[in-house]
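ok trying again, last paste got cut off:
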Amino acid sequence: MSKSLSSPCTLDSAGDPAPMKSPKADDGQDATPPADLGLGVNAVEEQQLANVRTEQSFAPFEGGRPMQPEITWLETNQQQLTKATRTAEELQYLLEEERARNAEMRMQYERQLKLIRNGIQKEKRDLKQTLVQQVDFIVRKYRNLATEAVETARQERQRVQTERIKARELAETACRNFEKDLKERTRKALEEYRQLAQEAHKAAQAEREELRTKWQEAEKRIQCYRLSHQSMKEQLERERRQFGQMMSEVAQRVEKECSEYDTAMLKAVAVFCKTKGVDVDESTLRQQLGDIRIQRLKEAGQDPKVEKECSEYDTAMLKAVAVFCKTKGVDVDESTLRQQLGDIRIQRLKEAGQDPKQQNQRPLTVKYGFQAITPGSS
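nice, full thing came through this time. structure:
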């Protein structure tokens, strides 16, 4: 009996033992066989016997007729049948006992649940009564506090009303005193402002008179500068015209001197060539020397139409004469040519009755009487 009670058995939701799941035939060798109940009957052997009977009942057909299965008698001994019967009776007894135990347990659980429900209801009633008492206490407490607060607020309102009346009286007194003080200070400030305004008016009149005097003096100085400026303007206009005339005379004089110098140089070159045995006339010499000089100036990168200095002109002329002499077969250097041409030019000037060391004419500024004018000198 102890073995049968200790065997594993599952119960359903109603407390009845649930049927055990028998292993299938195709579970193989890995399936765990059910435990033996200790009565000599194995559930695996019973399942194997059932499978053999099922296979024999569904034997295949042969020649249109079912094949006669080979009947194999599996004999069970009397002892195993007796054990199986005894096991069924014991299981029935155990099942009835388990049902009785489940019914007793259900009744105990119901009694316990009823006791628990009664306890919960009692706790709810006690808790409700406690809460009602606490709420009543809190309501009375806060009602008293509200009454005290209202009384305190009423007293505070009366105190504030009294203080407000006192503050109003103090403010009115302070305002009256301030108004009186303000009127007194305003009167004094107006008197001081009136005195300051009179003093400022007198100072403004004096300053106005002083500015009028300075303005008259400035007008006089401006008039003097205006007259000086007018005279300076007239003098500048007059000097501009004189400067134009002077530049015209300078241009004429320079042009005349250049022409005379060119003619004298050509004559000197012609005389020099004749002394060297070269017969050439002045026009041919002028043309050839001009071409050579222009060519030299082009090679030097200078403009042939502009001759800034007489030294450059003289040097170019000497180079041209030297080249011309070389073309005629006369070998002469530039320094010798410069000395000989200078001597010939001086001789020509002496024959013409002019002194080569004569001083230059007086400056044109002295001739036209230019002078500086300072403002204010009239």
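cool. The beta strands are 61-62, 65-66. The mean pLDDT is 72.
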